[in-house]
């Protein structure tokens, strides 16, 4: 039809071109594996990404082929994000916290042609390399001076800086089909083999627009963004792309994710916005509390990947004046699904009600659609009480897994998230459990997340995990596992009494067990299945 708009494909490389042209002076600061701080500008980043694109062509990487990375958050990783996807091949980010068997499985399954790695991960690469048929080439993300002299790799080992230096910065980003693949990330798969989620240029760009909006991650050219969430985990929640789109300064923490290092970086670089999982923020808060420190520039922190306990929201907001933005997402959702941003009428709610609202995972941004359904698949009301399986659909939701022979996951065009949730009349969704973690007591469901949230309100609790333990009368009953604050004299009955009046009586856990630590998975989440293996028979043997 005549008079229509241009058909310009949505491409990852266009983010880089925009950033170079309009924000060329903006900085990218990285703490390097070598220990020092590296800083340069978007202009330099774009130039080096073009050199790398030429280098990839020189290595014979064809469009659509996968290029693996095993790396921390840093500028070289950022260059690969754009060089690989921009030139038409697929950036495959590998999670170094996975078991070596899983890594080998993923590299083989994705048929990675080459793997780039940070020096920290040389021992891991040495263990994985003999177990995989491809790749034959590995690239150490360092300069000549830091190249490992002795290594156990029989494959070719190249030096990142050598190959960047050895190539021209003249490169025309190809005009790709926007529906072609740009990056690949495997879910960590607490059960079964990891599954690959293949993002397209189009889904990535649409996700970038949506995630940058004020009621989403709220990013602008005036922000200094510190992605603590790893670039190997769902593209650092899209922040590398968002930063280019809006022209924000980027600060990368490298391998130093402890509270002290993060606080130093936040203060030195005047970070305004950060993002990560609750476990990381626990470390940061503990450090800043211990030194009675403060934050001079931070305005917001995005917390997701696991429920953000109200105690954490309170600590950030009331103690340090930093707004908490609670978000929910999944690898299959690129990852942003819902964000807890107030609607106009909620801003003036009493503070207690606002905190209660912030414990919810929030509402979808435009482009994401959600519903909850019962066991028969019938839609449930948004009354804040009914809980059911959460389904989503949207521009950046996967429709199937990469190279999988399993039946496609969609149900009537909706993606079943595996989460159980309730939705209130304002459309705010609250995760009550993963479907496999729901506690089924006497035929009724009990939310482990609600129980954990209350436990976190107790001042002597560091970590709270509630699991379903088998029960002779009720099938399952909640069992609460607690890591206490150091030196705490808390006893189980004291904590159980703490629940009185805060929760329906029959939801109250029957017992509390104190543990030294809880097992964490590759993305920093509690491995409840392991705890169930260990404590699942607690009430049978009691
Ligand atoms: P994996 O845990 O397999 O590495 P993801 O990072 O994709 O994969 O995890 C997605 C899951 O994490 C969600 O389905 C949900 O159970 C959980 N999750 C993510 N964000 C939140 C949140 N804010 N609150 C509660 N659960 C969350």
Q: Could you give the topology of this structure?
A:
Blueprint: H1 12-23, E1 27-31, E2 37-41, H2 42-58, E3 66-70, H3 75-86, E4 90-93, H4 100-110, E5 114-117, H5 122-128, E6 137-140, E7 156-159, H6 160-165, E8 181-186, E9 196-200, H7 201-212, E10 224-227, H8 239-246, E11 249-252, H9 259-269, E12 273-276, H10 278-290, E13 300-303, H11 310-320, E14 323-329, E15 336-339, H12 351-358, E16 363-364, E17 368-373, E18 388-394, E19 415-423, E20 429-434, E21 439-441, E22 444-446, H13 448-457, E23 461-471, E24 475-484, H14 492-498, E25 511-514, H15 528-535, H16 538-541
Parallel strand pairs: 1-11, 3-4, 3-5, 4-8, 5-6, 6-7, 10-11, 10-12, 12-13, 13-14, 24-25
Antiparallel strand pairs: 1-2, 8-9, 14-15, 15-16, 17-18, 18-19, 19-20, 21-22, 23-24
Bound molecules: adenosine-5'-diphosphate.
Could you please describe the fold and organization of this structure?
- By secondary structure, the protein is α/β, with parallel strands linked by helices.
- The chain has two domains: 12-366, 3-Layer(aba) Sandwich (Rossmann fold); 437-541, ANL, C-terminal domain (GMP Synthetase, Chain A, domain 3).
- The protein is 29% helix and 24% strand.
- The chain is built from 16 helices and 25 strands.
- The strands form five sheets. A nine-stranded mixed sheet has the order 2-1-11-10-12-13-14-15-16, with helices on both faces. A seven-stranded mixed sheet has the order 7-6-5-3-4-8-9, sandwiched between helices. The protein has a four-stranded antiparallel sheet with strand order 17-18-19-20.
- Strand 13, helix 11 and strand 14 form a beta-alpha-beta unit.
- Helix 1 crosses helix 8 (239-246).
- The mean pLDDT is 95.
- Residues 187-188, 304-307, 326-331, 335, 361, 417-419, 431, 434, 523, 525 line the site of adenosine-5'-diphosphate.
- Residues 18-402 form the AMP-dependent synthetase/ligase domain.
- Residues 451-525 form the AMP-binding enzyme C-terminal domain.
- Keywords: Fatty acid metabolism, Ligase, Lipid metabolism.
- Belongs to the ATP-dependent AMP-binding enzyme family.
- Its EC number is 6.2.1.44.
């Amino acid at each position: 039809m005549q008079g229509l708009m241009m058909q310009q494909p949505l491409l990852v490389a266009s983010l880089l071109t925009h950033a170079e042209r309009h924000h060329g002076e903006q900085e990218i600061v990285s703490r390097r594996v070598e220990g020092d701080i590296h800083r340069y500008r978007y202009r330099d980043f774009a130039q080096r990404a073009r050199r790398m694109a030429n280098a990839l062509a020189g290595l014979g990487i064809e469009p659509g082929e996968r290029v693996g990375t095993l790396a921390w958050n840093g500028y070289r990783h950022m260059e690969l994000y754009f060089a690989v996807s921009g030139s038409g091949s697929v950036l495959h980010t590998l999670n170094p916290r996975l078991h070596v068997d899983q890594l080998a499985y993923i590299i083989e399954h994705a048929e990675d042609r080459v793997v780039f790695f940070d020096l920290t991960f040389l021992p891991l690469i040495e263990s994985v390399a003999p177990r995989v048929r491809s790749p034959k080439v590995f690239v150490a993300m360092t300069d000549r001076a830091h190249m490992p002299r002795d290594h156990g790799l029989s494959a070719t080992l190249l030096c990142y800086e050598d190959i960047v230096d050895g190539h021209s910065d003249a490169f025309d980003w190809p005009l790709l089909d926007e529906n072609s693949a740009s990056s690949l990330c495997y879910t960590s798969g607490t059960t079964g083999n990891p599954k690959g989620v293949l993002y397209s240029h189009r889904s990535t760009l649409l996700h970038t627009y949506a995630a940058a909006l004020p009621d989403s991650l709220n990013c602008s050219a005036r922000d200094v963004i510190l992605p603590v969430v790893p670039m190997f985990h769902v593209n650092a929640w899209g922040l590398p792309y968002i930063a280019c789109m809006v022209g924000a300064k980027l600060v990368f923490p490298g391998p130093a994710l402890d509270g002290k290092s993060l606080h130093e970086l936040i203060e030195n670089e005047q970070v305004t916005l950060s993002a990560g999982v609750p476990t990381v923020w626990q470390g940061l808060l503990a450090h800043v509390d211990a030194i009675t420190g403060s934050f001079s520039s931070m305005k917001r922190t995005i917390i997701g990947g696991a429920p953000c306990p109200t105690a954490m929201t309170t600590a950030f907001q009331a103690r340090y004046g930093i707004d908490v933005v609670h978000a929910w997402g999944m690898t299959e959702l690129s990852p942003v699904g819902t964000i807890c941003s107030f609607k106009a009428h909620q801003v003036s709610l009493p503070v207690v009600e606002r905190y209660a609202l912030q414990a919810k995972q929030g509402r979808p941004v435009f482009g994401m659609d959600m519903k909850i359904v019962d066991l028969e698949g019938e839609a449930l009301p948004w009354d804040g009480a009914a809980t059911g399986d959460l389904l989503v659909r949207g521009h950046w939701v996967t429709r199937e897994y990469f190279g999988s022979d399993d039946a496609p996951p969609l149900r009537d065009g909706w993606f079943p998230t595996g989460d159980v949730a309730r939705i209130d009349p304002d459309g705010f969704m609250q995760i009550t459990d993963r479907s496999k973690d729901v506690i089924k007591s006497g035929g009724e469901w009990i939310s482990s997340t609600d129980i954990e949230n209350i436990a976190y309100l107790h001042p002597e609790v560091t970590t709270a995990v509630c699991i379903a333990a088998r029960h002779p009368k009720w099938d399952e009953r909640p069992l609460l596992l607690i890591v206490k604050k150091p030196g705490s004299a808390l006893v189980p009955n004291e904590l159980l009494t703490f629940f009185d009046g805060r929760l329906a009586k029959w939801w109250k856990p029957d017992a509390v067990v104190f543990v030294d630590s809880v097992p964490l998975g590759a993305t920093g989440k509690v491995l409840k299945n392991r705890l169930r293996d260990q404590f699942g028979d607690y009430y049978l043997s009691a």
